[in-house]
TrEMBL record:
It comes from the Bacteria. It comes from Metabacillus herbersteinensis. This is YlzJ-like family protein. InterPro entries: YlzJ.
Length: 76
């Protein structure tokens, strides 16, 4: 079967819900981030959710960086 579409694979073939259970939105120094919990109570940055272009240029908030859970303010 061939799909001729511009839609990304994630919309056509969604991932399992258990992958998203570990993810949460946090605020770190006023920057909103999507993070995923790792083994030793740290959080890995998945995505920057800020609208400020300077936050995307800051290497502190690059995807893959680790944050301590103590420094993050969690949203419900």
């Amino acid at each position: 079967m061939i799909l001729y579409t511009m839609m990304p694979n994630e919309l056509i073939y969604p991932t399992a819900d258990n992958i998203f259970e570990k993810q949460s939105i946090v605020s770190h120094n006023g920057v909103e981030l999507l993070v995923q919990q790792t083994e030793n109570s740290q959080y890995e940055i998945i995505r920057v959710l800020s609208s400020d272009p300077n936050h995307y240029l800051n290497q502190q908030y690059c995807p893959g960086q680790k944050l301590s859970g103590d420094l993050c303010q969690f949203y419900q």
